[in-house]
Amino acid sequence: MFSIHRDPKYYPNPEKFDPERFSDENKDLINPSTYIPFGQGPRNCIGSRFALMESKAIMFYMLSAFRIEMSPKTQNPIKFMKGTLNLKAEKGFWVNLQPL
Ligand code: HEM
User: What's the 4 CA to ligand 1 centre distance in angstroms?
Assistant: First the structure.
């Protein structure tokens, strides 16, 4: 899935953080078979709706209480750890949380 989602054939400039790819105007340009964060078919993720809801709730409460900034320990550009099943940052995920 990682490789498909980072393939420039399907996602131009794939490393760019570009939420506009998923805007109402652009989302029809995405081939649904190349967007499979929760898998597809009869064994797809049973928790996808819950996962989306909890991610949005976390983002809402974090962003309403803190400004998230890079710290001197933030790895930028991020590199991913090799040899793990789950996607992890090589040097961990470090940010500063500034209370609003
Ligand atoms: C962002 C969070 C999550 C992601 C990206 C994710 C992704 C996935 C993916 C890719 C699969 C495999 C689908 C396939 O084989 O086609 C899967 C399966 C599954 N996920 Fe998730 N998942 C997430 C969160 C959750 C949560 C919160 C739960 C439970 C509360 C959950 C429960 C399951 C279960 C039970 C399966 C196996 C379904 C089956 O084999 O029939 N997942 N998930």
Answer: 18
